[in-house]
Write a structure and sequence with these properties.
Length: 502
Amino acid sequence: MPLLHWLTRDDDITSAARAPYRLLEEVPDLGAGTPDAGNMLIQGDNLDALKALMPYYAGKVKCIFIDPPYNTRSAFEHYDDNLEHTQWLAMMYPRLELLRDLLAEDGSLWVTIDDNEAHYLKVILDEIFGRKNFVANVIWQKRTSPDARLSLGAAHDHIVVFSKDINCVAFNKLTLSPDQAANFKNPDNDPKGSWASTDFTAQGYRPNQMYKITTPSGAIYDPPPGRCWSNIEPELIKLCHEGRMWFGRDGAARPRVKNYLSESDGISAWTWWSNSEVGHNQESKKEIIALFGSDAAFDTPKPERLIQRILQIATNPSDLVLDSFLGSGTTAAVAHKMGRRYIGIEIGDHAVTHGVPRLRKVIEGEQGGISEQVGWRGGGGFRFYRLGVPVFDETGRVSPNIRFAPLAAHLWFVETGLPFTGRSDQPLLGVHDGRALYLLYNGILGDKRPAGGNVLTSKILAQLPPFEGPKVIFGEGCRMSAEKLAEAQITFRHIPYEIKAR
């Protein structure tokens, strides 16, 4: 597979591995509503924030939507969008690697971008996710009219879609709009109710689907040139007996199949999204001005209807959504209104000046954007976090102020590759693949003396929750002989020397 090369590639493809694990420190005063709703807003560099989430959310995120800087070489007030091509790739590559690892096996990534970097983005996504996991390139019509300043102005953005595993991902159909539902009628008083018809032909040639059809009035039809009937003759007869075929009011028209409104589970999405369906730049600008005023509005927000369309396709209620370029908070606001859990990450002050007040308004029942359409009346909540100190210092040692819980989560993740869901008030972190993992640290057994609870001795071993099988025990020291460790099926790992920092 062809690879994209740029000046700093060798360093950039290892940036994710070299990023430090940091603590997430809650700022209660900036959260709002129900604290246990499962929603997070994080202020800080998104590379470090994504790494901090890994021990807890690896493989757990159903849908990732990001709207990264477009590298348009124009200065934005709220973003440094004036990045050289190499810098843009250096910024994106490690973040996309971490986003891939956070996705669930049936999850999907959606990235909005314009022509400046869209094709380069596709190439690095092919490398990171695997080319077979490419889903689609959605075209979003972002403008309502041509740009009079340009002889050939852009009317669209791309939304590049990748899956974690193309064999696992499944997308929802879209709910019929009122205009689409109005296309279902009942001209023949069918007892099954309103219906809309579709063509009874398929492209290609299949010998068993090349028969003649005689209509109720006696008209005879062959398949059109280059096409065959869409099913074999016994299935046609069955559909006719069930009243599901339509030959026109006079019974002489070409055959069509009835599709009943009562049986419809929606319509399949396609890759052309018009601004009448999902909104446009002017609509999103009005939404932001209504929330923050014209002086504090973002330059390139996305309309709520666009994010709603993505979440309708890629998620179900209670699924986890992640946006690591949160901006003005649109993704989090829409996910909140749609009953999805979410994590939003923003590096700048507008995490506080825009994200927090916007989500508080949503909790209070704000009626802009999609609120009326989804029947939003308020409720829910979120927690606010900032990035704290790294778990490890520059020498790889555990930082002195690290608490038991984050170290336990980190150790569980690096040992198992899974997010930590166990208890952080006991030394037994859990059992994985028939092996128990223990941590003796920070006086978890109530004794912080060097020769006490953080050091493995026969006495301490007797106090640990029992497990009959192989055990890995992390601690600040060990006073047991190699023979006794082997007899107890213990692999001891010394803190900090045998902890993987990255």
